[in-house]
Amino acid sequence: MRMVCSPILSPADSSALEDPEVCLDEFSARYFAQHFAPTEDAIHKDHVAALAWLLKEGRLEIKLAVVIDEAGRIKPEALFHPKVGILMDADGDELSFSGSNNETASGWTTNQEEFKVFKSWEPGQRDFYVGDKTSFKQYWENRVKNVRCMDLPAAFREQLVRRSFDFSKEDYVRRHYESRQRNRLAWQRLNLFDYQKAAVEKWVANGKRLLFEMATGAGKTRCAIGCVNRFIEEDPSRAVCVVIAVPTNDLCAQWERELVGTIVSDYTCVVANSRPGHEDWRADLTKLCSRLSLGTTSRRVVIVVTTHSTACSADFIEIVGHLTSYARLFIIGDEVHGMGAREHKRALQEAYEARLGLSATPERMFDQAGTRYIREFFGDDSYEFSLQDALDADRVSKYFYYPVIVPLTPDERLRYDDLSERIQKLGRLTDSNPDAEEKMKRLLIERALVIEAASEKLPALKKLIEDNKDEWRDHVLVFCCHKILTDCQMAFIESGMTVSRFTFHEKDRERILKKFATGGFSALLAMKCLDEGIDIPDAHVAILVSSSTNPREYIQRIGRVIRKAPGKEYAKIYDFLVSPSSEMDDIVLRDFERARYVAKSALNSFEATEKLFPIFN
After folding, report:
1. Over 50: is that where the pLDDT of 106 sits?
2. How far apart are CA 438 and CA 579, in angstroms?
3. Which of 136, 213, 303, 379 is most enclosed, with most CB atoms within 10 A?
């Protein structure tokens, strides 16, 4: 192989080369030390060493070309810049190629460039091929006006050949083989089911923008990693930055664990959140983005696991935004409904080429504009996989469902009706009065609290605990609202069961989860902290004392106990419902509609549906 290339020369370099008193070998040694400093980057080391090995083995000749003026002096400001190549195969067929592309990612993928190929065996192309071949020969033989072509200085060649001593063709092949094997093993470990593969394919077909509306426990995280792998493999020549935005710090750690062994490329992971140990995320991410843009890292894939609140911050947006010209950007919004909030919308930047939103139900309560924004940003289409689909596919645990129906007291009914009347009046003013909508939201929350904290729920809970305390030794999840949190906790303590709160106020939630998983606590008492995708597969009993009026939270809470786990035959769900009255609006009836949806897929479907039957007749 023959190569003619152009050195980058400063005016001082040019003067030195023209000076007959300067020793060319000494100059070459200094030039080599300046421009070929040792590097720890695997890609650079491989490329330089491979080039040196070709020289040592006599498989490569290199000449240097510089532009000269009419007097024959080197012009340092000018570059020898033709990009022409001649190839010949074993059968003697030849072709030439030429183009304006630089050997950079942007040169091949984003710039407006030209690239031509001419075949020696095609009559219409042969003349162009001959012209390219003749041109190369003239450069090689130093017969082109205004260009000086010279042999590679011996000292420079010697220094370069030394770099070949660390190069092993067998080792190079082995490492690339291992890389391919790692990719294959990553897909094997990911082990996507057919419906998950279908989700990934729909994401690709929809322009890599989609919402995954999948039941809790159906494997949205694994599907998302499948999309990440497809994105990485799609263009091996370019850097990739994947941003995974989640609601809480706890979920950051969970995602970080899921990524291990399931990504098809070596990657660098940065956790950007407020948890101790990650305070320097700005400096870490800035440094990494700089290395990606300069191409000085052997790992072309960066995965940033962060929270919704950090992803929408000005610092985060600015740092990641610098990568737009150098890397392909992909954002994954986990529990994506949270990203429709006013302050979190800033995280959803147009610079993200690929987008994926994950949520069992992405609709935002009382926020149609936020819901619409999410759907439009993530491609305005979904892949849906319902609770019944998950049961049919044996992806979640089968369950028993037990509705616990309690009444409101007379005072609670009066309070509920009064709030309903005020909400109805405000509803007529929302179009003309901007403040009315905000007031109505507050009243809706206050009315929902009447249902969530209904006083008759507490004696019903105590009876339920008394009837089942011998069976409920461990792995019981209890969901209730803040107003009755302490009363519910005392009900378990009085029965002799060990219980721990699991709310945003607890400092060491990870320790609490580990202790719960090993049977250190019989029950965990939560308000909303377990709603957002935290995995507790060993939990097998869920008690929904306070069921949110938000259907998403309701489904998420059920999802906490129907996840598959070794030795888990089935789960049990106890759902506290307030019986409706003729004066009440449809909010309570909607709760019963959800209950009927869950009941029809339960192992005790007939019994559960029969208990709900009087409400609908």
Report:
1. no
2. 28
3. 303
CA gap 239, 391 in Å, rounded = 39
Following DSSP, what letter does each residue of 337-377 receive, concatenated?
A: GGGGSTTGGGGS-TT-SEEEEE-S--PPTT-HHHHHHHHHH
Whole-number CA gyration radius for the chain = 33
Per-residue pLDDT, averaged over 11-23, amounts to 80
Sole residue written with tokens 């993928």: 109
Q: Are 228 and 262 in contact (CB under 8 A)?
A: no
Tokens of residue 462, six digits: 């105590």
Residue 31, pLDDT score: 75
Average pLDDT score over the chain: 85
Query: Could you give the 3-state DSSP secondary structure of residue 37?
Result: coil
Distance CA 246, CA 252 (A): 7
- Predicted confidence band of residue 105 (pLDDT cuts 50, 70, 90): very low
Percent above pLDDT 90 for the chain: 35
Sheet arrangement for strand 382-385: 267-272, 301-307, 239-246, 327-334, 354-358, 209-214, 382-385
Q: What is the distance between the alpha carbons of residues 462 and 11, in angstroms, rounded to a whole number? A: 89
Tokens of 63: 């000449």
For the chain, give the number of residues.
617
Beta-carbon contacts of 17 under 8 Å, excluding residues fewer than 6 positions away, are 9, 24, 27, 74
Average pLDDT over residues 78-104: 81
Is the torsion defined by CA of 52, 55, 59, 61 positive or negative? Answer: positive
DSSP string, 207-240: TSEEEEEE-TTS-HHHHHHHHHHHHHHH-TTSEE
